[in-house]
């Protein structure tokens, strides 16, 4: 498991300089209609939702993304994350429970080539808003895995949970061991392609109440980490994960210290 120090380095705080606005392209025009079924573009409004991402990623396979809202913004119920130029552009579909409002949610993705990374949010009643950044990164979906296959087998499905109070809000960090193979990587020993194998379903609850759920594709990073602010209700944290090979994992953690 990566250390908390490394997690903090990768995920802590907004990206440095946000001078990388979206660069809408013919790719997005096609995706918007054919993949998302949107006949018109979605308005951007940082007063409802913002997305932070680095201008140039240090590692294309672990690009940090942070979704944030002002305190008075309407709650976001769902977010579709799209990485325009990735082989599978729809990277993730999130649903959020009331305890996540206002949203402050971080995770890591693979970016395969210079691309817009955008979040299309649903705030209810059919209202959508978009946020995003243009990220300079390449090769993230085919980057070599960070561990050998024996370690993958030995540690897959292990989880860690930490929580702390930061800036007046409770912030939880969930770390999951899983290679999240994209299907575009090669085994560094055999040089054969590694079949796609990734977590495609994830649900995190406190007691019976939903914090967030995820339906994912190949673009969520290896050993995924989710860091998020939430309103605690004092109940244990329950995590349910499923992957594309039919594996399932269920873990429960003390709400305070894991």
Account of the protein in words:
Residues 1-17 form the signal peptide. The protein has 3 helices and 14 strands. It has a single domain, classed as SoxY domain (Immunoglobulin-like). Strand 3 (78-83) and strand 4 (90-96) form a beta hairpin. It has helices spanning 4-11, 26-34, 149-155, and strands at residues 50-52, 63-68, 78-83, 90-96, 104-109, 115-122, 128-135, 159-166, 169-176, 199-206, 209-216, 225-230, 237-243, 248-253.
Summary of the model, kept short:
The chain has 258 residues and is mainly β. The chain is built from three helices and 14 strands. The chain has a single domain, classed as Immunoglobulin-like, CATH 2.60.40.
């Amino acid at each position: 498991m990566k250390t908390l120090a490394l997690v903090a380095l990768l995920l802590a705080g907004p990206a440095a300089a946000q001078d990388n606005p979206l660069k809408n392209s013919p790719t997005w025009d096609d995706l918007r209609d054919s993949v998302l079924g949107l006949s018109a573009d979605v308005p951007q409004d940082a007063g409802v939702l913002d997305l932070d991402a680095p201008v140039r990623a240090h590692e294309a396979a672990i690009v940090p993304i942070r979704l944030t809202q002002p305190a008075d913004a309407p709650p976001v119920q769902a977010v579709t994350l799209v990485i325009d130029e990735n082989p599978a552009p729809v990277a993730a579909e999130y649903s959020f429970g009331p305890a996540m409002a206002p949203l402050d949610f971080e995770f890591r993705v693979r970016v395969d080539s210079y691309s817009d990374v955008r979040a299309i949010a649903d705030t209810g009643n059919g209202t959508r808003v978009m946020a995003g950044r243009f990220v300079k990164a390449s090769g993230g979906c085919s980057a070599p895995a960070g561990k050998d296959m024996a370690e993958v087998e030995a540690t897959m499905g292990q989880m860690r949970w930490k929580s702390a109070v930061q800036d007046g809000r409770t912030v939880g960090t969930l770390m999951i061991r899983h290679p999240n193979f994209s299907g575009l990587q090669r085994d560094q020993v055999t040089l054969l392609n590694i079949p796609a194998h990734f977590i495609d379903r994830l649900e995190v609850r406190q007691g019976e109440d939903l914090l967030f759920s995820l339906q994912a594709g190949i673009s969520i990073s290896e050993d995924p980490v989710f860091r998020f602010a939430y309103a605690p209700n004092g109940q244990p944290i329950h995590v349910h994960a499923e992957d594309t090979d039919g594996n399932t994992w269920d873990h429960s953690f003390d709400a305070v210290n894991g």
